[in-house]
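Sorry to interrupt, but I need a hand with the structure work. Could you write out one complete protein record for me, on any chain you like? Just paste the record in under my message, thanks.

. . .
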Amino acid sequence: MEVTKFVASGREKAKLEGDYATYRKGLSNRIHNLRKKLGIATKPRAKYDFGKTQVTAEDIARNHEFVRLLLLTSERAWAHAMSMREIHSTEKKGITGSTRTHIISRLHKATTYANDLFHLLADQGTTGAVDEDVLEARAYAASLSGATAFEKQSWEPCVKSYSEARIIYSALATSTKSEIFKDLLSDPVDPSIRYGAYQMQLPRTVAIEAIARKYFPRSDAKLVSQVENLDPDVLNERPTKAKTTTAEAGTTPKTITWRSRTVDLEDAAIATALASVNSAAQKLAETLASVTAAQAKERASAYDEILIASQDTVDATKHAIDELAGEGVGQSDRRMQSLQITRTAVSYEMVSWRIGRNRVLVGQQDGAVVGGPAVQSGKKKSQKPVQEEGTGRKLARLREKAVLYDSILQSLDSIKELPGVAADTEFLTELDAKYGYFSALKCLTIARSHALLSNPKNALALLARASEKCNTAHSQLESSMDTSDSSPPNISISPTEVRFLKGLLDGELQHYRALVELSNLNDNTPKSEEQANQRPLVESLNEYPVKSVNLENLVTYPPKLEPIPVKPLFFDAAWNYIEYPGRQIQEKVETSVQEPAAKGQTTEQTAQQKKGWFGFGR
């Protein structure tokens, strides 16, 4: 009967419209049309008959549209309550007593219709409903009951109702693999349980799953049996089988280490988020191992999941710090200090993965190696040869790399602003070395762009600056350990990578020194007008020199683009108009042979000339 899907789709539409009043109006129209369709609509000026409009189990067995009727009626009351809350929440006074009473009455009405639906579907012999339909209707009624208790600020009934809904939705999510139930868990079930537990003064170290298991109505044997049929481990604190599809499957960390300091994770939300980060890191390593280095965009997109998980961890830590600060806890408190250390550690890890994503995008060896054009796959002879990229396209690629290096440098600067980093001198020295490494790569990229624009002096100056920064970074990072090739790229820089860049810069520096020296010699050598206009020696090798050979003008440097013939062209348009030697004798012989034949053909030609227009016969 898809109770949850029907409700979730309607509420999603309400979020898109952004107005619960419009959603409520649409529900009223749908209810009126559905009652007409089912033949239970009250006629104009007729007396309302409650017995005619009351839905029974036999009605549901005859037509499942009666289930939709009850759901629409319940959702209309819920939308009315949400509309009033939305209107009055923006006022200065907030939600007053009379408004809150009205909201509670609407939520109570919605809960009443949802409970009626659940009790009707519980008669499975008559309605033909399956266990999943009954559980969905019960979870829907429990969530509305929890919302009513939330507005009444009755925290224990609120937690009990939402715990019942959470266990049922978790079992359905495991059984059906549907994302709808997971979305309902994230909002509004889990936040309501967490806030209700906070109002009940339960420790924040207790996870939401443990709270839901504690307040779940285990006295209802039938409900427990139905839930365990879908997921045997949903009520067990120690599951008998591993769940690899959820973040809770991984080992939840109990502590976190930052710069030789280890603190306990007292907040369950932070520990769960860190478990998600560890799971995403494993998936990232597997993905990068299966994707080639040439597919930079595919490798970079694999970082999306771990970046989202890292951001969730940072948000959870900040939320925990704000809660303690709201309770009046000072910075000298042990809990606040532990959270500050945790915040620094998780923020550093998030920045590390962000830098790793940018390192993947710049190319191999952090962009030090210039990548050629993509090679076409296949063995067809009709494929065209790969053409070299133009200067404009090469400059655009170098500009994109420079932007990525700027992003990496900004991320490194943001680390210095984290709590406790400014006092760690050794760590700041390491950050400065990494900053110099990426600055050298940026200078190398800009130098290559100047080389493409035929500015060897500017390129040489930038390469000298890059070599200076790389030598400084090499002296600081040489003693660090090499990272594993299988580990995903992040903020860690191995001595092998620094040595490779150092060798590359040394070679490029010598190369451009030679080019600049040649350019200086060419500019400083005085040239006369005769030497300036004289062709290079390589173009006159077939001519014997009358005077001495000028060895100062061997080739044209730098080379210039000159037109050359693709293939020889034979086209003599004046052949029929010029008398060439020897051609006159041949023409006289041909004329003497053709004269007798011409006389014999005169009569025939005269007869042939007597024809009609355009040579056609009459």
Summary: The longest strand covers residues 255-258. The radius of gyration is 42 Å.
